[in-house]
Sequence to fold (217 residues):
Amino acid sequence: MKKKIVMIHNGMTIVDAVNEACKREMPDVELINIIDESLVKDIIKYGKVIPEMARRIMRYALSAQDLGADAVVMTCSSLGETIETCRPLLNIPAFRIDEPMATYAVQNYSNIGLIGTLKSVAGPALRLIERKAKEAGRDVEIEQMVCDQAFTELLAGNRDFHDKLLTEATIELSKNKEVIVMAQGSMARIAPNIEKIINKPVLTVIDVGVRTIAQQL
Fold:
């Protein structure tokens, strides 16, 4: 019987990239996408996750279980901590897609550049990497940069300008860094080009996250 995975998204910008990665790593898995675009609007509006948003995520996670899913995955890094709080209520695994990337980064690098395009990602992403470093007993140095104008341009449909702003910011951040960690899935598609420019590894939440979920399932 095919395994079934429910993906919870905060908008359309990441859906295709996640689904493509899943098809590569888990071709026989049935995917169900729950898309709530009000989540990203509320993240921008409030600059953080408020209780009402967390309750919506909890209901989506419980719905995934009711659908007979073998796992539920939160694909938004800003909301990653909310899916962790759902775990005690579920009988199925609840993954945050950025967790494997954070684990890999601290296990392999000591000087990390962390970049995002949403201010609301900054806190959760940094806390996740710091927690994984502590769990691994690793001493890591993390410098963070938020290129929020890039996300504004992406929402406005100005994809090329988003890419330009993000590329320039990443090049600046990469100086004296061993690795760049991209905190959001919406950034993943330009990672290969940036990697060629800076000649350093660029880790993305989607590829590492989906690959690890596939291995665990």
Remarks:
- The chain has a mean pLDDT of 91.
- The chain is about 55% helix and 20% strand.
- The longest strand covers residues 4-9.
- The CA atoms of residues 163 and 173 lie 15 Å apart.
